[in-house]
Amino acid sequence: MKMRIFLAALAAIILLSHVSVAASPLETLMGLAMGDTAEVPIIMYHALEDTPDNRWEITLQEFEDDLKYLAEKGYTSVVMQDLIDFVHNGKPLPEKPIVLSFDDGRMPTANIILPLLEEYDARITMAIIGRETDHYTELDKNGASSRHPHMTWDQVRTAHETGRVEIQSHTYNLHGPNGAKKKKGESVDAYRQRLMADLQKFAEKLHENVGITPNSLAYPLGAISSTSDDIIKEAGYLASLSCYEKNNTITVGDADSLYSLNRFLRPPHKSSGEFFAVLNDNKMMNEDND
Ligand SMILES: [Zn+2]
């Protein structure tokens, strides 16, 4: 962890020194200027089930309808790394970017989603729970199953290798009722240590099993304390996802614009047109929308 903080500081020093000697600071960016903004809606999915029995599950057909609808309306799915590249490097986003995020890393979802992502040339961000991945990797070795199994590390790696599924953190083991929030009566220092330890464990497990480093955290249940984002920044996370149902404006050069990003929950039993009307309220869709 210390090494990552050191590297981040070193990168910042290099960036700053580079900017100060350049003829124009803007030339160091990839096509955009400091202060340029982008509107990016983020959708929150969890699992795809034949018969959704709660507001966090939708059918495969509903998800396919969403992909079709977004393609027709000119949206391009992007992942968290694209938002980070926009803010930190000034790398342009497509004209109408949208992030399709999946929380929890549930297994049926991973198995059936990949052919659809190929068909619609789409990408998703999947925030997995480290402990569940460990648990189901063990169960899988023993041939056990359950109605709501989670992905195993092999499946996470396979999904990552398709280039269509960006793997991020949903914490290692803070998916209980309190989420990653500070507990009642817990000191800020104790909270910081507890959260840092969890983030570090997740990062180690992901690196060990998939060979990558997470840069975004989806807060379980969207539960956040006033110090949460500062702690995850210190741990090297460049972005975080909340559950407030609003749009986002991110800004080139404003690293803080990537934290506690809002997400719209996609519930079952709604057509794509009905659901994505939430974006109309924020003037995200074209004028010619229905
Ligand atoms: Zn979750």
Q: Write down the CATH class of the largest domain.
A: Alpha Beta
* Structural classification: alpha/beta
- The number of helical runs is 9
N-C termini distance: 50 Å
What is the CATH architecture term of the largest domain?
Alpha-Beta Barrel
**What is the multimeric organization of the chains shown?**
single chain
What is the rounded Rg? 19 Å
Q: Which strand-content bin applies to the residues?
A: 5-15%
Within CATH, the superfamily of the largest domain carries the name Glycoside hydrolase/deacetylase
Structurally, how many domains make up the residues? 2
Percentage of residues assigned to helices: 40-55%
CATH topology of the largest domain: TIM Barrel
Q: Describe the sheet with the most strands.
A: 6 strands, parallel
Count of beta strands: 12
Detailed description of the structure:
With 290 residues, the protein is of the alpha/beta class. The protein has two domains: 1-30; 37-280, Glycoside hydrolase/deacetylase (TIM Barrel, Alpha-Beta Barrel). The chain is built from nine helices and twelve strands. It has helices at 2-21, 60-72, 80-89, 107-119, 130-141, 153-161, 188-210, 228-234, 272-280; strands at residues 37-39, 42-45, 47-48, 57-58, 76-78, 97-104, 124-128, 165-169, 216-218, 239-241, 249-251, 264-265. Strands 2, 5, 6, 7, 8 and 12 form a six-stranded parallel sheet that branches. A two-stranded antiparallel sheet has the order 1-11. The longest helix is centred in the last third of the chain and has 23 residues, at 188-210. Mean pLDDT is 88; it is low at 12-27 and 283-290. Zinc ion (ZN) binds at residues 103-104, 170, 175, 220.
